[in-house]
Design goal:
CATH topology of the largest domain in chain A: DNA polymerase, domain 1
CATH superfamily of one domain in chain B: Aldehyde oxidase/xanthine dehydrogenase, a/b hammerhead
Order of helices and strands of chain A: EEHEEEHHHHH
Strand content of chain A: 15-25%
Largest sheet of chain A: 5 strands, mixed
CATH class of the largest domain in chain A: Mainly Alpha
Number of helices of chain B: 21
Structural class of chain A: alpha+beta
Structural class of chain B: alpha+beta
Oligomer: heterodimer
Largest sheet of chain B: 7 strands, mixed
Distance between the termini of chain A: 47 Å
CATH architecture of the largest domain in chain A: Orthogonal Bundle
Distance between the termini of chain B: 59 Å
Strand order of the largest sheet of chain A: 2-1-5-3-4
CATH topology of one domain in chain B: Aldehyde Oxidoreductase, domain 3
Number of helices of chain A: 6
CATH class of one domain in chain B: Alpha Beta
């Protein structure tokens, strides 16, 4: 993204973001959406742009514990917030990642990170979801390849793995 | 050329007989739980797609699009856009460096204007492309371009376009009328009038197919960068080899060996833009802009612009069917008028010929130009054939009060012959003689409970007040398998792992893992020792993922490469190594012949004495100083003596290629079948259709990768339900403007849109691919849309004559709208 445009003045602001536990000090324009900042400015390419209007869930991130569509949030609004992306979930070796691979939940794979982030937010709040609860939560994520049936299985398997880890 | 000569050529170039070389034992082939190669990358977010690529100093380019469905640019002022800060270059349609036409891609070499001055649909890329520091600035600049448009009359409906006095939709290409008269397609087998005389009953019906589209999750895009006079290009395309060929034709010719292609993960396009005759237009413009600015240029479509490309079967279809009272169909005569279909030769009644004993068949496809976007086969060109097949059989069953399953079995056959004839041909060609349709139907019926649940149309109301319906359809398990493939395998130094080489687009069907399974079993290697990363321009181009040909074309290439390489390894293992004028090292297996050795678990061993063994890693040797053996000028080793430099073994590498005509030339009888069942509940007050269950049964001949095949089944079911029930690109009839080019208003299915999907795979071994396999990628998504028709009919007792079966159409069929 270019520097501010003199003929079309856009204000800039410095913000602090904690992304996957790492602090970033960023200068952002007032019209930048969070998805753009994560993907293009920070290089966290797992936060995908798909519909750009809050219809598909591909850009989902977790902000202060809640799943949020990052294409619908201005970066400036996130000043001081803690954000978790798919890269952070993978880095933490969350069992969702392995469960998604084992259950072959991806085809083209473009939407896959959005599903996992949404599922992670679910498991954070509800570690033992029912199949219906998983479906209800993931219904907002679109997959054009139609991988849907595998996601429920993977999330339930990951929930079981988490339970086992906690017991250990 | 005589027909005999042609037959010989077909025989030579096509594998029209059963695979004579199956393996005695499969280790990773057909085994569940094979770790998919792309799994972790895609799950963890690190998988990189073209749209994710950022290069230092890269510019972003976006196109001007037409606000009108038919209009010509009379003049254009780009001065304000050029003055905008951050705009680095603007390429205009009247730029003196632009050639009148160039090869811009598509199936075959094309001749297209790079930037047009006349738009033939609203949203078409015309007039200008802006390269700027950001996409946002490019978009802003586009709004500053002032265009004087000369609006022209337009037409959106195919049948209206045929009326006398209809506006010409594209006078530049079709000055005499909107009908593509030179490519009207006729399919003709037997004598339909004779067939109608033999019939006990004549049935006539029609249906209208709305326009749907693919929706690639990743927007169409690409990057062009000049490294001196060498292009480096990132393509979001299914056909990287065509991209390279096309680019080589530009600017007076660029040597192929100077062009480097990157074909990263593909955010799916299901055929889509990869087949458009203009699909490299963005790259051409980016190449010019990159040259002028000295920067890499990424061009992109907006999300909305992706919606302007469509599936190719929008139109109206008419049928007249003659049948005996027992369901034996005697004749089918059909006609269709379709919009913007550039490939009408695919036809829409071919499946009756390829798949049944029906002797008399006639189909006429009239393709008409309208002012909507271009269309291509989306998921598959067999879509209209599947609709024809599904509706004809179910209309016949309905008219005669028969179970549609029985009507299917009664007509099964091929080329107008019955199953006795077809079975004898299976035997002639060396295939197992199995009744694929019957096997598929039996499994599918049991899974959905057909015998208990099926009822006459419109007769079962559920306790929840909705009407219950069951639908059934079938056709052959197609793959059209025309194509060629080059693939290679090399054994890596140091660890003896195998790398498959072959540039192709990964569209997500997990074919890459399947190739590794084939290579591993053929080489005698562990599956974890074989890897394939197809994104590299490795000098070999595998068959594109089109036409369900991943395994039926590439499968042969990789199998043959693996067999050649295995032979080469065993020959090398029994021959002197590291030969120089000063001598050579002895064979790894002195005194043995290749046939006395084998490879298992990535270990070469002597069959008669398995303890005589070397791992492939030991044999491939490690990357030492890479110097000559026993050189007198060799560096001292650690012991102070002259060392023997590694490696001793010659590079272990081989390749194979496969070329085959496939099915379009009529060289192959279709032997494998698929059958599908759907259970719906229809709300007769709202017209809403709930898809409760789908059972999808595919005879794929031989399963290589279970999860991959099943993924195409449930994934295809979801896409099919969307296309058949809710997906339609809508245009405003008054303005010609597309109204729903976004994912809020164009309704693709969510997780909740199908209750349950049961996937069943049948393995009869009757496919023409290696090990008796046949492709699956296109089938389910292409036939399931049609199945909603008979399922809804079974529920409400009325035929809905239009797809997608949106509530308004269901209510209209019920007389409520």
């Amino acid at each position: 993204m270019s520097p501010p445009n003199k003929r079309n003045p856009i204000s800039e602001e410095e913000i602090n973001l904690v992304v996957n536990g790492d602090l970033y000090k960023l200068r952002v324009q007032s019209n930048w959406i969070l998805q753009y900042v994560l993907h293009d400015e920070l290089g966290l390419i797992g936060t995908k742009e798909l519909c750009s209007e809050g219809a598909c869930g591909a850009c989902t991130v977790i902000i202060d514990g809640r799943p949020v569509l990052s294409c619908m949030v201005l970066a400036m609004e996130c000043d001081g917030k803690s954000i978790e992306t798919i890269e952070g979930i993978a880095r933490a070796n969350h069992p969702l990642i392995e469960a998604y691979v084992q259950h072959s939940c991806m085809q083209c794979g473009y939407c896959t990170p959005g599903f996992i982030v949404t599922a992670k937010a679910l498991l954070d709040k509800n570690p033992k979801p029912t199949e219906e609860e998983v479906k209800e939560v993931l219904a907002g994520n679109l997959c054009r390849c139609g991988t849907y049936p595998q996601h429920t299985k993977a999330v339930l398997a990951a929930a079981n793995n988490l339970q086992r880890r906690l017991k250990i | 050329m005589s027909s005999t000569e042609m037959s010989k050529i077909l025989e030579l170039f096509d594998n029209i007989k059963a695979d004579k070389y199956p393996l005695e034992k499969y280790n990773s082939i057909g085994k569940r739980g094979i770790y998919r190669l792309d799994g972790y990358e895609k799950a963890s977010g690190v998988a990189k797609y073209t749209i994710d690529v950022q290069l230092p100093g890269m510019l972003y380019a976006r196109f001007l699009t037409s606000p009108y469905p038919h209009a010509e640019i009379k003049s254009m002022d780009t001065s304000k856009a050029e003055a905008l800060q951050g705009v680095r270059a603007i390429l205009r349609y009247d730029d003196p460096e632009l050639p009148p036409v160039a090869d811009l891609g598509g199936h075959e070499p094309s001749s297209e204007p790079v930037l047009k001055k006349v738009a033939h649909f609203q949203g078409e890329e015309v007039g200008a492309i802006v390269a700027a520091d950001s996409e946002e600035i490019a978009e802003h600049a586009l709004a500053l371009i002032e265009v004087e448009w000369e609006k022209r009359p337009f037409v959106l409906d195919a049948e209206e376009a045929l009326l006398p006095g209809a506006p010409l939709a594209n006078p530049e290409s079709y000055p005499d009328g909107n009908l593509y008269s030179e490519i009207t397609s006729i399919e003709k087998y037997g004598d339909v009038e004779k067939g109608f005389v033999e019939a006990d009953k004549i049935i006539e019906f029609k249906f209208r197919q709305g326009l749907n589209t693919w929706i690639g999750p990743e927007r169409p895009c690409g990057i062009f960068k000049w490294n001196g006079d060498c292009p480096e290009v990132w393509v979001k395309q299914q056909r990287p080899h065509i991209c390279k060929r096309v680019i080589a034709s530009w600017f007076g010719g660029i040597p192929m060996n100077k062009i480097q292609i990157h074909c990263l993960y593909q955010g799916a396009s299901f055929g889509g833009w990869s087949q458009m005759p203009w699909n490299m237009g963005g790259h051409y413009c980016a190449a010019v802009l990159a040259k002028r600015t000295g920067r890499a240029v990424k061009w992109l479509f907006s999300r909305r612009e992706d919606f302007y490309g469509g599936e190719m079967d929008e139109g109206v279809y008419y049928y007249k069917v003659g049948t005996k009272l027992d369901g034996t169909i005697t004749a089918i005569k059909a006609g269709s008028v379709v919009s913007n279909q550039v490939l009408p030769f695919f036809g829409f009644v071919k499946h009756f010929h390829e798949n049944t004993k029906i002797p008399h068949i006639y189909g006429k496809t009239e393709a008409v130009q309208v002012n909507k976007g271009p269309t291509v086969p989306t998921r598959c060109e067999q879509n209209s054939n599947c609709h024809s097949f599904t509706l004809v059989f179910n209309h016949v069953a309905d008219a005669l009060g028969l179970d549609p399953v029985e009507v299917a079995l009664k007509n099964d056959g091929a080329d107008g012959h019955d199953m006795i004839w077809l079975n004898s041909r299976k035997a002639d060609m060396g295939f197992p003689v199995r009744d694929s349709l019957k096997e598929c139907i039996e499994k599918g019926k049991a899974a959905i409970g057909w015998d208990d649940k099926w009822h006459l149309p419109g007769t079962k109301r559920l306790p929840n007040g909705k009407m219950h319906g069951l639908g059934f359809t079938w056709t052959h398990e197609w793959e059209d398998s025309a194509g060629s493939s080059e693939m290679a395998i090399r054994i890596e130094r140091n660890d003896g792992t195998a790398t498959i080489l072959g540039c192709r687009a990964d569209i997500g069907v997990n074919a890459e893992t399947a190739y590794c399974q084939v290579a591993a079993d053929e080489l005698g290697m562990r599956i974890q020792d074989v890897h394939y990363r197809p994104q590299i321009d490795a000098g070999f181009f595998a068959m594109t993922p089109d036409s369900s040909t991943n395994m039926s074309v590439n499968g042969f290439a990789i199998r043959n490469a693996a067999r050649l390489l295995k032979r080469k390894i065993l020959e090398a293992a029994t021959s002197p190594r590291g030969k120089t004028p000063l001598g050579s090292a002895p064979p790894a297996f002195p005194g043995k012949k290749p046939e006395e050795l084998d490879i298992k678990e990535s270990i070469i061993y002597e069959k008669a004495n398995p303890s005589n063994r070397r791992t492939l890693a030991e044999f491939a040797d490690y990357s030492g100083a890479m110097g000559p053996i026993g050189s007198p000028r060799g560096e001292p080793g650690s012991t102070g003596e002259q060392c023997v430099r590694n490696p001793l073994t010659a590079p272990l590498f081989d390749y194979a290629w496969q070329i085959q005509v496939g099915a379009y030339a009529g060289a192959r009888l279709r032997l494998c079948r698929q059958a599908h069942f759907m259970e719906v509940e229809v709300d007769t007050e709202t017209g809403g259709v709930d898809v409760v269950q789908v059972v999808t049964v595919n005879d794929v001949g031989k399963v290589i990768n279970w999860e991959g095949c099943e993924g195409q089944q449930y994934g295809g079911a979801y896409m099919g339900v969307g296309r058949g029930r809710s997906e339609e690109v809508v245009h405003d009839p008054m303005t010609g403007v597309m109204l729903n080019g976004n994912l809020l208003n164009y309704k693709i299915p969510t997780m909740l849109d199908i209750g349950h999907i049961n996937t069943i795979l049948v393995e009869t071994g009757m496919g023409y691919g290696p090990y008796g396999l046949v492709g699956i990628g296109e089938d389910v998504a292409t036939i399931i849309p049609a199945l909603i028709g008979p399922a809804v009919h079974n529920a409400i007792g009325k035929w809905v004559d239009g797809y997608p079966m949106t509530p308004d159409k269901v209510l209209k069929a019920l007389g409520k709208a």
